[in-house]
Amino acid sequence: MSDTSRYRVLLGNEAIARAIIESGCTVSTSYPGTPASEILESIARFRDEENLKIHVEWSVNEKAAFEVALSHSYMGGRASVSMKQVGLNVASDSLMSAAYTGTMGGFLIIAADDPGPHSSQTEQDSRMLAMLAKVPVLDPISPENAMELVALGYQLSEKYSVPVMLRPTTRICHARQKVSIGAIENLKRKSKFSRDPNRWAATPRFRLKLHRELNEKLAVISAEKALLPKSHLKNPSSCKHCIISSGVAYAYLYDILADLNLLEEVSLYQVPMPYPLSLKALNPVLDRFENILVIEESYPVIEMQIGNYKKVLGRVNGPVPQQGEITPDVLFPLVNNFLKRPHKSLKIMKEGGQRPTLCPGCGHRAAFFAIKKALPKALYPSDIGCYTLGINLDAVDTCLCMGASINQAAGFYHSFHISGSESRSIIATIGDSTFIHSGITALINSVYNQARFILVILDNSTTAMTGNQPTAATGMLPDRSPGTSIDLEVMVRGCGVEFIRVIDPYEVLDFIVLLKEAEQYTRAVDGGIAVIIARHDCLMNRDKLQPPERHPLVVSAECTGCQYCIINFECPALQYEPGKKKVVIDSALCTGCAVCLHVCPVNAIKTKGKK
Amino acid sequence: MKAKKSLQTQILICGLGGQGVLFLTRLINEAAVLMGEDVISSETHGMAMRGGSVVSYVRIGNYKSPLIRAGQADIILSLAEQELALYAHLLKQNCQIYVNMPRGKKFNSIHATRIAEGLGAPVITNLVLLGFAAAHAGFPIDYNLLKKVLKNISPPRVLEINTRALEEGFNAARNSQGSTAPGS
Predict the structure, then answer these.
(1) Quick one: pLDDT at residue A334?
(2) pLDDT tens track for B119-177
(3) Which pLDDT score is estimated for B178?
(4) How many CB atoms lie within 10 A of CB A549?
(5) Residue A352 domain-assigned (yes or no)
(6) Which domain holds residue A249?
């Protein structure tokens, strides 16, 4: 046992990581994704701080992460896998099956949801996926509470040999709170595989048996005392009103009721485990109160299990919006209306603000500029990452989900081809990390099924958008130590592609020529898919030792103020001065990449000291 | 331990991705803990950090949740002038407003960017603004405490310049006392 408890201010994801470590977890895996990315990074950091032996890995995708961690649990160890909610879609095949096989050592799945959404393509509720898989799910109200639920989750998982899901939301993951730090459990377990083919390799006949066993477990789990819905009041029957809630919405509600001095008048129930929900525990509550408001994010999971829509107000029949984040400003009028209290209507939050852009000097910007210049009429399927911001440059037409750019490029090709319509060129863009995540199988499929398009792999040698996590191509491990790198060109060649070129996108003119050559290849009789790897290191990546070469730039008097550069290149360092009617370079932002020299139609941007 | 009244202060910090909103958030959080307060805050991560609008909420005192409701912010620190308008509805009527902008009369404003550039590091604009705010009487966190926390959380190679930034902001406010009446 290490030292006694002490306080630290931790980000929600750090708090979750800390609780995982304290629970004696020895294998942790993840694929980066906002809002979950910091969990694995923090596990690696705490491991090193505390000198622990834990296998921590950035897996190439969530399915790989899930299965690696699950297997440690099969061997009796405690394991965790963390991901964002849409990552769980990728791992859902494994999730559904693992619920039936069950586990040995504690297995915690962290799926971070993103109501809003702030950084995701959907507002989906992972608790619903837990329900579909028949896996217990815990819904923390704060970072502090998430730590308690991690510990309870491991106990629950081992007591019943089931995977357990923790479902934080963005506001938990990216909240920072004073929390208490506990001792680290050293379980000293030796991994051991106990053969049981009827369980670990169950055929459909045995799957029925496993399903029955799972259902029996869930019935018992729902009655687990520590996870039952509980009121903030000792004697809830004394008050007239009742609100049932879970997640961060519970914390908002508590603060609003405290503000309004109503904590004694409303019984506020927290549901730590929305599935399996104990209706036995909730039935007396339902009997006692005339109307009940249910507040949860982001789908009506608790509400639909309760049913009873005559009494229960929520998303199904009631006043709670069916989409968007439930913020305190959304809740305030809801609560007042429910309690039939007069209140002033609120000013509506202004939409807007500054949209994000690619960083100054980003290689992606140069690549998109070249693509637009070379083939302005092409169709541009793209993917998930920083380069989705290519939408600002009109160089992104579609963005569906991880890896979809390549399959969509193939789909668009076949669609043009089969309908006999004039076929536009297709240029798919995908990042290096996303390519390895799920683009690689798409490329194999495209080659095999004889699609024709250009694929530009925007290789910045990192997972940039989520905070520069390493990729399999760099080989770097989570603690930044070197590992085994897998060459991107070899991967592409292995997919059956014959046209492979590598270029630095800063060489805009060469890139434009190359893109035209690639297009010829996609249309040639003996041609096929052309892959260009546009390789330039991410400038935000601190793992790179070499600072980039800098060319000090100026805008000369020849600038006509046409703003072509600002509209078509959108570099934050290029700014229009209305007074002077000219573009100026913000030297604090400019990285001196000098790509804009090729952008200005009148060549007004120059390297300092050169005419 | 003697029971003491908690501070109950809600601070909003806004700016653009890359301006150091998160660092200020962390600094204020750590300072609050040293003051013996509970603290919970909310941060912006992800795509917005690429130059988009970024906001943090810091709630010091007896709070369970991390967001600030309309009309409840006691203090706002705005690293970019144009961002202020986005959060106007969240501010209390007598909210203390500290803004990085060329001198204006409406708010407590300081041209923090220019001072930071003068120090040779535009990235420390955030600390200039914080030092400036800490010089005002109504600001709830002591300047020397902020200095102490800065020492704890700054990477060693930037500690000196970070401290300079905080000092310059603080001194700028003190030097202009009389003209803008800090604390009003």
Answers:
(1) 95
(2) 988 889 999 999 999 999 999 999 999 999 999 999 999 999 999 999 999 999 998 86
(3) 52
(4) 10
(5) no
(6) 227-338
Total Cβ atoms within 10 A of residue A195: 8
**Helical residues (DSSP H) of A471-586, grouped into ranges:** 488-494, 508-523, 564-569
Which of A178, A252, A254, A539 to substitute to test the interface with B, most B CBs within 10 Å?
A178
Contacts of A466 in chain B (CB under 8 A): 46
A258 and A292 part of one domain: yes
Q: What is the pLDDT of residue A3?
A: 43
- Strand A79-84 with A107-112, pairing: parallel
The number of distinct structural domains making up chain A is 4
Q: Is B122 on the interface with A (CB under 8 A)?
A: yes
Q: Which of residues 22-61 of B touch A (CB under 8 A)?
A: 25-26, 29-30, 32-33, 38-53
Looking at the predicted complex, does its ipTM rise above 0.90? Answer: yes
A356–B48 CB contact, under 8 Å: yes
Which residue shows structure tokens 């089931």?
A162
Q: Any idea how long chain B is?
A: 184
Establish, for the pair of chains A and B, how many residue pairs have beta carbons separated by less than 8 Å. 131
Q: Which residues of B touch A588 (CB under 8 A)?
A: 117, 122
| B157 in contact with chain A, both atoms CB, cutoff 8 A | no
CATH code of residue B38: 3.40.920.10
Specify the 3-state DSSP secondary structure of A470: coil
Q: Residue B43 domain-assigned?
A: yes
Tell how far CA A499 is from the center of its chain: 33
| Residue B143 placed within a domain | yes
Query: Mean pLDDT, chain B, as a whole number?
Result: 90
What residues have CB less than 8 Å from A290, skipping those under 6 apart? A311
Q: Is residue B129 part of a domain?
A: yes
Residue B182 has pLDDT above 80, yes or no: no
Give me the DSSP letters along B18-30: TS-HHHHHHHHHH
User: How far is the C-alpha of A282 from the C-alpha of A277, rounded, in Å?
Assistant: 9
Residue B41: strand, helix, or coil: strand
Q: Is B20 inside any structural domain?
A: yes
The CA distance from B170 to the nearest CA of chain A, in Å, is: 23
User: A358: nearest CA in chain B?
Assistant: B50
Taking CB atoms and an 8 Å cutoff, what residues of chain A touch B82?
354
Which residues of chain A fall short of a pLDDT of 70? 1-5, 346-351, 545-547, 610-611
Q: Is residue A524 domain-shared with residue A456, that is, in the same domain?
A: yes
Q: For residue B66, give the nearest of A171, A178, A358 by CB distance.
A: A171
**Residue A267 domain flag:** yes
Distance CA A321, CA A330 (A): 9
Residue B16's domain comprises 9-175
Report the alpha-carbon distance of residue A591 to residue A531 in Å, rounded: 28
**List of chain B residues whose C-beta atoms are within 8 Å of the C-beta of residue A247:** none
- Shared domain for A215 and A267, answered yes or no, is no
User: Are residues A47 and A149 located together in one domain of the fold?
Assistant: yes
Task: Let me know whether A501 and A517 are in one domain.
Answer: yes
Q: Per-residue pLDDT for B106 more than 80?
A: no
Count of structural domains, chain B: 1
Q: Taking CA atoms, what residue in B is nearest to A249?
A: B65
Residue A575 is assigned to a structural domain of this protein: yes
CATH number reported for the structural domain that contains residue A310 in this entry: 3.40.50.920
Give the tens place of pLDDT for each residue, A183-221.
999 999 999 999 999 999 999 999 999 999 999 999 999
pLDDT of residue A596: 96
Q: Is residue A496 part of a domain?
A: yes
- Looking at the complex, report in whole angstroms how far the Cα of residue A177 sits from the nearest Cα belonging to chain B: 4
